[in-house]
Hints:
- The protein is mainly α.
- It is 84% helix and 0% strand.
- The chain has a domain at 55-88.
- It has helices at residues 8-45, 52-87.
Amino acid sequence: MKGQKMKPEELSQKLQYQTQKEVDELQTILNKLNGMSLVLSKAMKNGVVVDKKAYNDFAQKYNDLVKAVDFDLKRAKLRQAKTFDLEK
């Protein structure tokens, strides 16, 4: 299909698919990160983690990562909404 122009309907469907895929992937990542957070919290409460400084350093980096993924997810959802609005 290279070199050929896409019909507006095809382009719209492709954009919808891409934005939905991006939203789904980011949501999956965020869900996995949240699951990991629960495991780490339980480990800390049960005394499995003994080096609190290392845990706190990791927790800070983890929180930064979650914020970044959450921000990317919000942007992807905005792009998805704009794509749907273009169709109307």
